Amino acid sequence: MVLTSNATRELSEALKRRCLYLHLGYPSPAREKEIVLACVPELPEQLAEAIIGTIRALRAMELKKVPSIAETIDWAQTVLALGIDTFDEEAVSSTLGVVLKHASDQARAIGQLKLGSN
């Protein structure tokens, strides 16, 4: 059995005693691009690179909830579904809620990424 945790909830001591801990960090940008393109193969490569670059910038911020790889995939699917072909400031601003669920995180990202508000 494999248990995963992003440390948002405390595990019981009894459960912790029965677990082997292995910390897995985020993949390299190249590996994350491979993952995204495997899950969203219709996404143009340059959009995948732009999304991953923005996700990595978000992960470097002090956020309540840092975007996971699953959220990178969600963002890629959203961009594709909306027919966005350039991941510019407007595209990032209008879809930021896909990866950042807290208003304070969105405000911080808008400020640090120097995005205009929509």
Describe the structure.
There is one protein chain. The chain contains six helices and no strands. The chain has 118 residues and is mainly alpha-helical. The protein has one domain. Helix 2 packs across helix 3 and helix 2 crosses helix 4. The chain is globular, with a radius of gyration of 16 Å. The mean pLDDT is 91.
Total count of strands: 0
Helix/strand/pairing class, anyone? Answer: mainly alpha
Relative strand content: under 5%
* Fraction of residues in H or I helices: 40-55%
Average pLDDT, to the nearest integer? 91
| Number of helices, where a helix is a run of at least 4 consecutive DSSP H or I residues | 6
Our measurement of the CA-to-CA distance between the termini, rounded to an integer number of angstroms, reads: 45 Å
Compressed to H and E, one letter per element, the order equals HHHHHH
Number of domains: 1
Summed up:
The protein is mainly alpha-helical and 118 residues long. Helix content is 52%, strand content 0%.
